[in-house]
Design a protein that fits this description.
Blueprint: H1 3-15, H2 17-31, H3 37-49, H4 54-65, H5 75-90, E1 104-109, H6 116-129, E2 134-137, H7 144-157, E3 160-162, H8 170-184, E4 188-192, H9 201-217, E5 224-230, H10 236-248, E6 252-256, H11 266-274, E7 278-282, E8 290-292, H12 295-303
Parallel strand pairs: 1-4, 1-5, 2-3, 2-4, 5-6, 6-7
Antiparallel strand pairs: 7-8
Helix pairs in contact: 1-12, 2-3, 3-4, 5-12, 6-7, 8-9, 10-11
Length: 306
């Protein structure tokens, strides 16, 4: 491991400590006795508590029980088996976000408080560090604070910012911004959207309108629609993926705030149910705390393996 990878691994392990502690405690208890029916049921319960989902938990419990009843199993062996099963679910969805066009338009959606605008800023920093020209579009016109936040990220990263006054038409802003991006040859266009609850149909309708208007400028845009999910909301994230997927055509996911939750298993539940690419995960507030998602690292960190 090089130093940067080691640093990220340490942050990832630290960020997932609440989840791994929850599972680790259960695993240590199981390792002290024979893996009987009661022990397997307890493991299933702990997986559900960590939001891995009942289907995944039942499958894991059944797999562990098979051929192992009345046997003792070491804690590290049990963790390794668990990490292996988690990795199997995550490998198909651990896919990088590939930049395939210019400008490459990324529409970023999510509910208020999910870390959406901060994620946009971190992505801008990542792409600017790669030498790409970036335009940020302050499409969350309902919140003056979101507009100001994006302007700060623009100054910090050297990205161009397109913004209107609070309350302006977000779709019109996106139209003008994408037109300018094409004229100026921008590499990446990151469009913020109003944080909306998935059960507010009129706000979801505005998101659909934004997608339609963007396609009037560039028929293939947006090339990516990222849904930012807050790990601390647990099972509610499944509902968000379903509704935003129908409304905005979500192409990939970003999971934030894994460092503030014992519910890191929700990422596994989402992967198992939807199979959507998970491009990035976040484990803190710093610019470097958003990183491309890798299945093996996550699986080992979430169960507390080194």
């Amino acid at each position: 491991m090089n130093d940067s990878t080691q640093t990220w691994w340490q942050r990832l392990k630290g960020g997932l400590r609440e989840t791994s502690s929850l599972l680790g405690g259960a695993v240590q208890d199981l390792a002290k006795r024979k893996l009987d029916a009661a022990a397997v049921e307890e493991l299933e319960h702990e997986l559900i508590r960590a939001d891995f989902g009942p289907e995944f938990a039942a499958r894991i419990a059944a797999g562990f029980a098979e051929g192992r009843f009345e046997q003792e199993i070491a804690a590290d062996e049990l963790k390794a088996l668990l990490a292996g099963e988690i990795e199997k679910v995550l490998v198909p969805v651990a896919r990088p976000l590939e930049i395939t066009a210019r400008p490459f338009v990324i529409l970023v959606a999510g509910v208020n408080g999910s870390g959406k605008t901060t994620t946009i800023g971190k992505l801008a920093a990542k792409y600017r560090a790669e030498g790409k020209t970036v335009m940020l579009v302050a499409g969350d016109t309902f919140r003056a604070a979101a507009i100001d936040q994006l302007k700060i990220w623009g100054e910090r990263t050297g990205a161009t910012v397109k913004a209107s006054s609070p309350g302006a038409d977000a779709a019109g802003l996106a139209f003008d911004a994408l037109t300018a991006a094409k004229t100026n040859g921008a590499d990446i266009v990151l469009i913020d959207t109003a944080g909306r609850l998935q059960n507010r149909s009129e706000l979801m309708g505005e998101l659909e309108k934004m997608v339609r208007v963007i396609r009037k400028v560039e028929p293939d845009a947006p090339q990516a629609v990222l849904l930012v999910l807050d790990a601390t909301v647990g099972q509610n994230a499944l509902n968000q993926v379903e509704i935003f997927g129908k409304t905005a055509g979500v192409t990939g996911l970003v999971m934030t705030k894994l460092d503030g939750s014992a519910r890191g298993g929700i990422l596994v539940a989402i992967a198992a149910r939807f199979g959507l690419p998970v491009h990035f995960i976040g484990v803190g507030e710093g610019v470097d705390d958003l990183s491309p998602f890798t299945a093996r690292d996550f699986a080992r960190a979430v169960v507390g393996l080194d």
